[in-house]
Amino acid sequence: MSYILAKSKNEDILKAGECGGAVTSIFKYLLDEGIVDGVLALSPHDDVYDGIPTFVTNSEDLINTAGSYHCAPTMIGDLIQKYFADKKVAVAVKPCDIRSIDELIKRHKINPDNIYTVGLNCGGTVSPVSGRKMIDLFYEASPDDVISEEIDKGQFIIELADGSEEAVKIHDLEKEGYGRRNNCQRCDVKIPRKANIACGNWGAEDGWTFIEINDDKGQKLIDGAKKAGILETKSPNEAAIEGRAKVEKIMIKMSKKNQEATYPLVNEVEEWNRCIGCYACRDVCPICWCYKNCELSKSYFKDDIIASPMPIAFQGVRLSHMSFSCVDCGQCDDVCPMDIPVSLVFDKLQKKYQNRTGYLAGVSDDIKPPLYSPDKVEL
Amino acid sequence: MSDEIKIVGLLCNWCCYGGADTAGTARMQYPHNIRIIRVMCSGRINPSMIFKAFEEGADGVFVGGCHIGDCHYDAGNYKWSRRAKIVQDIIEEFGIEKERFRFEWISASEGEKFQKTMEEFHTTLSKLGPLELE
User: Fold this and answer.
1) Residue A359 Cα, gap to closest chain B Cα (Å)
2) Which residues of A touch B70 (CB under 8 A)?
3) DSSP classification of residue A308
4) Tag placement on chain A: N or C end, fewer CB within 10 Å?
5) DSSP 8-class letter at A89
């Protein structure tokens, strides 16, 4: 594990990318050298609230994916598993993305040799709907005029077409029920250390990307990009490393506080009773990879397809299948038509499981999820 | 009232089922509320089976397996022991008292332990009354 500061040597990428454009440059290097078949990244569609996962195979198209999209929370893990299992893919991952990829690797659904993961430090994402609403309410600008957004130093910053910026403290937004998604507010994994490298602007000088190299593959990635002449690097000073560690520490502390506040308050029975059994949470879940052969679709759990399911025979079964591997990506909250805080309960149970066994989903180094392990230990 | 309590018992073929048999042949009295389902190993039991039992109207679910180290299939009861704790965690989230689910290691020679456990479990469930799932 080592730290470096990196910056793109490509003029266009430097301009389009966030703080140094190192991530886009590394992707360009991987594509140009033919190391990967394609790059899976987000590209904007109609506006900044709409990011679409795109498989880029030509390095000239990469420039469209540069920049950050906090208002387009997506999940990469199941995309790779479903559509790119047999391809060599480079991918930009948030912490919850790499955690889901790690859980899928443990389930033999993704081959780790086939993927290059470039991690992005993540302070949280914003749902596109509440993002628009909060810009309408708390900012002077209209949501339609925003051309780019950024989260920095505890503020949600929007940039307008004329180059002017407007910022509001995230704490103030969240007090009013806006700001980051609920699962992001309680997420305590901010740096994706299971990815080959973890990039971000925390602790970095302006115009540079701070990179934590996590493994040999990551080191080779950086060395290769440097050799190809697309990346320049330098060592960060002590203050930068400390600054970054401090940002992470503060964020985790805030998340823990949020966890303590939200876990005891949720009334599961009341929430579950709203469930209409649409299966959207199961279908979107990156960990629920065997949805095609799902136990919930078996006749003994589906005797009455019109009535709402008994919570214990629906969510209960899902919880027993994968709550210990829940990476708290919040996709289930996003898709639930009844606004049940699904991920909150799943995450609460994963934390309960972690307290007992020490297994943190997608972070711990166990070879298998403990429930599948043949080891002769009682947990 | 207490006679209407329904207990579903999932017993492993090699140990606990034998234990129930021992209790029977020795004519030990135990509550007749238990409906025994024989499984080949406690490691064969999924949490969803427990949930299904509750959904179908069981007031309590009991699982019996071999003592740790005695599993006929080497490690089945270790697997079950890990699952059992997840079941305990989960049923609480659905308003089911954790006392309604019980698991125990009972060997084929421990007829008395089976009898005692059943009596205890029956008393606990009688106090809690029938399970009402919303």
Assistant:
1) 13
2) none
3) P
4) N
5) E
* A284-318 pLDDT tens trace: 999 999 888 899 888 888 767 677 888 888 999 99
Query: Tens digit of pLDDT for each residue in B72-109?
Result: 999 999 999 989 999 999 998 898 999 999 999 999 99
Q: Which residues contact B51 (CB under 8 A, 6 or more apart)?
A: A312, A313, A316, A317, A320, B90, B91
With an 8 Å Cβ cutoff, are A295 and B85 in contact?
no
Paired with B1 in beta bridges are none
CA distance B12 to B78: 13
pLDDT digits (tens, 9 = 90+) for A119-132: 999 989 999 888 88
Task: Tell me, yes or no, if B133 comes closer than 8 A to chain A by beta carbon.
Answer: yes
Q: Which residue of A has its CA nearest to B95?
A: A269
Tokens 């795109």, located at residue: A54
CB of B54 less than 8 A from some CB of A: yes
Q: Which of A179, A193, A184, A175 is nearest to A244 (CA)?
A: A193
Per residue in A252-278, is it b (16+ CB within 10 Å) or e — as a string? eebbeebbeebbeeeebeebbeebebe
Judged by CB atoms closer than 8 Å, whether chains meet at A310 and B93 is answered as no
Write out chain B residues lying below 8 Å of A271, CB-based.
none
- Residue A155 is encoded by which pair of tokens? 């503020």
**Structural domains of chain A, ranges and CATH numbers in brackets:** 2-125+181-261 (3.40.640), 128-179 (3.10.450), 266-357 (no CATH)
Question: CB–CB of B54 and A312 under 8 A?
Answer: yes
CA gap A267, B12 in Å, rounded: 36
User: Hey, is the C-beta of A293 within 8 angstroms of any chain B C-beta?
Assistant: no
A376 at B interface, C-beta within 8 A: yes
